[in-house]
Amino acid sequence: MTGYRQVLAVPGMASLLGVSLLARVAISADVMALTMYVVLGLQMNYAAAGGVAAALTAGTALGGPLLGRVIDARGLRTVLLATVAVQIVFWLSVPVMPYGVLLGAAFVAGLLMVPAASVTRQAIAAMTTEGQRRAAFALESVQGELSYMVGPAVVILFAAKMSPEVVAWGVGAAITLGGVGIAWLKPPLRAANEVESGAAVRPSRREWLGARMIAVLTMLFGTTMLLSGVDLAIVATLEEAGQVSWAALVMTVFGAASVAGGLVYGALPRSLPTWLLLGLLALVTVPAGFAHDWPWLCVAVVGVGLLTAPTLSTVADAVSRLAPAGVRGEAAGLQSSAASAGFALGSPVIGVAIDASMPGGGFAAAGLAGLAAALVGSLLSRSVSPRRTGTPSERDLEPFEHMVNKGS
């Protein structure tokens, strides 16, 4: 645990993680809040609610790189205050918007969502040393797991006791507070030596968006597609067994295992290649399809959970290393977009597999998707020679690239 103490002792790190957690919990609950509003407030069906959720998710996926690019060019506070203003207007207006207007407004709100996760990752890369970074990104991945465990559950709990309009306002207020808090803290997005050496100069995409970065983003897409499919397969399995009421317990076990896995991985003396972690995650996902009731599902998802946060943390670490300082915001935005795209595509694809076979087939399909992404990532990593010429920022990454090549 020494590594975690060192990370939390970095000036401003503990407060950043705390404020960022508030924003991320609220952002993870936004889809559920809009779903509850459409179903309970507008008295429409779940297909209509899914349309709003899809619009918000699509906007978030497209907006990540755009906001990151603006952060690189204009600075952090400009983007945070602008996105906070948009969120205030959107969430206050939710109860008075007809469905058609809500559909378009949700897309805009997603496009200009407060970039809490990507900013946190950028700040971690800037505020920590090489030796601290793995533990720091492990904490960030645990933060993400906690937000997805807490956010939607809190919305469901309050939706049963309050009006959906009040719940929507509460989610908007929490997003606003988190965004304002990060703006007030104004964490550094570039290390002092990067600023002094002029590393903030923006290189062309050709210099950094190469095979290795594409490999990492592909593996992230496969990871979130797998996780989205696992969530759906759990519900489908329990529904077939007549045990849907136990879904919350299975999801809690899944999330707790992921938190534990992330903390253990961050304390290890060395990191593992992303393709290896994703491949192992995929392999332990497939056998979960043999579980047919909630006790066995709880056992099955432990293995999946233990590898989830470590896989996500290695992706964040790799992106921070491969992206030069001048484009770190855009790279973090691409990371968020790849994750959102995987989550969005995972449910329908795995849903087709479940409909065509059985609930257990959903776990197999999710595992195969992850395995395919791991294979593609490994092949792309091998396709680039570790010895090459390039800009100083590119040459600084050669030791990392050699490590990845050796591990692959």
Automatic annotation (TrEMBL):
Q: Where do transmembrane segments lie in this chain?
A: 46-68, 99-117, 166-185, 214-238, 244-265, 272-290, 296-319, 331-354, 360-380
Q: Quote any Pfam family the record assigns.
A: MFS_1
Keywords from the UniProt entry = Membrane, Transmembrane, Transmembrane helix
Classification via InterPro entries: MFS, MFS_trans_sf
Q: Which PANTHER family match?
A: MAJOR FACILITATOR SUPERFAMILY (MFS) PROFILE DOMAIN-CONTAINING PROTEIN (PTHR23542:SF1), PTHR23542
Protein name as catalogued: MFS transporter
Species of origin: Nonomuraea spiralis
Q: What is the lineage of its organism?
A: Bacteria, Bacillati, Actinomycetota, Actinomycetes, Streptosporangiales
